Structures are given as C-alpha cells and as structure tokens.
Amino acid sequence: MSYDVERIRKHFPALTEGAAHFDGPGGSQVPTVVGDAVARTLCSAIANRGSVTAAERRADGIVVDARRAAADLVGAEPEGVIFGRSMTQLTYDLSRALAKDWGPGDEVVVTRLDHDANIRPWVQAAEARGATVRWADFDPATGELAVSAVADLLSERTQLVAVTAASNLLGTRPDVAAIAAKAHEAGALCYVDGVHLTAHTPVDLRSFGADFYVCSPYKFFGPHLGFAAASPALLETLHPDKLLPSTNVVPERFELGTLPYELLAGTTAAIDFIAELVPGAGSRRDRLTTSLRALEEHEDTLARRLEAGLRAIDGVVLYGSPERHRTPTVLFSVDGVAPERVYAELGERGVNAPAGTFYALECARHLGLGDTGAVRAGIAPYTTESEVDKLVAEIDRIAGEHA
Ligand SMILES: Cc1ncc(COP(=O)(O)O)c(C=O)c1O
C-alpha cells in the first residue's frame, strides 16, 4: 500500500480548523489516538511504578512499553532509553554527567549548524570544568557541514563531538556516520541531536555511530517530552547527580523524579501511529522503516515542489542548497519584507509558516541572518500538494505587492 495523505489527515482533529501547517519543525499536530492514550492513562487507576497493585503494574507496563517503542523508532536497546522533559533538559543533564570527567586541556567540539540545545549545554559544561570549546563551521553558501570541518578540530584531548543529525533551520543532514567515526578515532564520544531528523526518515542509531541520540516526540505526533538513547553499557559508566533514595539502575538513574506516565503512553501511541502510516506486516521496527521510507518520499516530492515554486518568484531568497539529501524544511525570505511580516500575512490567510531563528541562533548568524532569521516552511506528514501551492501563491502575492 502506498502513502495516502488524505487517509492520514482524517486522524488529526486539529486539521479541521483549516490552517495549512508548515510549522511542523516546531512541533507536529497530534492524531486522536495519541490524545486518547494520554487521557486514558490520566483517568485510569495508576500509581507509582511497582508490582503489588494493578495500578502500580499499569504504570510499570507503560514505562516498559514506551522504552520499547522509542528503541524501535531509533534502533536502540530499550534499557538505553532515558525519558526527560525535553531534549534541552536531557542534554543539560547528560552534559553535566559527562563533564564530571573533564578538566583543563580537554576539548569539546560543537557546530554552528546546531540548535542551541546541542551547543550551549556543552559550552557551559566545558566552561565549568575549564575545558576548551572548538567550533565547527558549515558553508553558509550551501548549508553543508563538511566532515573535515569537524575532523580538523579533533585531537587526543577531544572528549565529545556534539552534532545535529539535521538542521532545524536549513534541513541540512551532515554525514553523521563519518563524523562519528572520526570522533571515535580520536577517542571522543559523539552526541547526536536527532530532534529535527527523526520526524522525517528511518533512523538507526548504530549505523550513525552515535553514542547518544536525542529526540522529542512532540515533533513526531507525540506529547511534549524528550528521550535520549545510548548503549546501556555506556550509561553504566556515567553517574549523574541524583537523590539518595532513588534507584541507581540504568536507565532509571538518569530520570529524575516521577516519570510522566500519560506522556509515555502518548509516545508509544505516536510511534505505533507512525508504524501504521503505511499499513503492513512485520515487527514494529520493520513497519516503522517501511512507513518512514514512504513518508520521506511523500515529503521530498512536496519539498521539491515548494522549492521550485519559491525559486520561480522574483525577490524570494532561499537559504542553503546542500548536495546531500536534506529534510523537507525550507528557509527563505522575501526581498524588502521583514520575515515577521511575511509570517503574519501568511497567518492571516490560514498558512502557518513562522519566522525566526528557531533557537538555531549560531546558524542564523553564520548565514548572515542575524538574530532575526527568516521564514521557515516545513513539510509534515499531513501536508498536501494544494497546501504547498497555496503557500507558493501567497508568497508570490506578497513578493509582488512589495516589489
Ligand atoms: C534540532 C532541534 N534540536 C533541539 C531542539 C530542542 O528540543 P526540545 O524542545 O525537546 O528541548 C529543537 C526544538 O525545536 C530542535 O529543532
């Protein structure tokens, strides 16, 4: 069976409001099954995790199921999945745990392509330990981050390389596997931000060579939380600050306080929903791969249509044109019209494509867009061809009116 966008759209109550949602890179809309799973969990008999009462067993089962689902999505082991409030919070926590072993003379590498959540926690952790930060630059003309841009910064003192699997501003997908291999050759760990990528393609943590892979279910139909995946053996070597009475087992010792059971149930439902985008047989991991391949094809087709439409308009500037396959995320501006104005005018006409830097502040500055950024349009699993045509027509009108 092929990708049927109209069938998929019926699962999203939010779409009945009528807006065309190009704001998916900021967070996707949510299918009914996910909302139902959250509400059902909140309203069912539930207690803290345990094995004595049915309520305790329910909470425990929800956590175990969510770890399995998250592991299936990114190709990890369930025992290596850590849930947290957000990718940002998890990265701060993990950076502090990892930095306990750093000292003066040690180095960490961050990139200007990254969202600030995969930069600042490392910069601040390095500062706190007297370690040095090395910055890898991407090519502002193409949006590409060359492997050599990272490799040239590595030394025997490099402790960690933090790199994005895909830029939330430009859609660039660096060659993470090659970067991770270089990091490992230097004896460093590789921490990969998968928040933007995971919504758009099948992911395999192992083939990336990522020591940590972090993402946020609210970008792919789920509730607002994050998870990090790593090998349980690596997690065993880390000792985060934690409460005395809380368990010291992995991965629980990284999860501070009580887990949000309802959001975990929603996460499992979201991952099951992705696995059913294109109904098929096989394990959940197999179905996720099949569905995400079909989704990627659908989104790529629409992204090419959007790019071609925008390129044909006088006065529209598109940023980044990487040769490598990128996510269906397009960053652009209209000559003579502030991005905020384009965003507002589109919004008035039911087209949601926000403007800004989207916390990829270093990236926007390196592109010459300062702290203002540009307009970002992301294709989502529920985006249709006619929505793309509507966005292009509206930009054509705005560019024409301001020419
Ligand atoms: C690429 C990327 N990394 C990190 C984040 C931060 O994720 P969270 O909101 O879960 O902290 C975002 C959020 O937009 C993102 O797009």
TrEMBL record:
Name of the protein described by the UniProt record: Cysteine desulfurase-like protein
Domain Aminotransferase class V: from-to ranges: 22-391
Domain of life: Bacteria
Organism: Prauserella endophytica
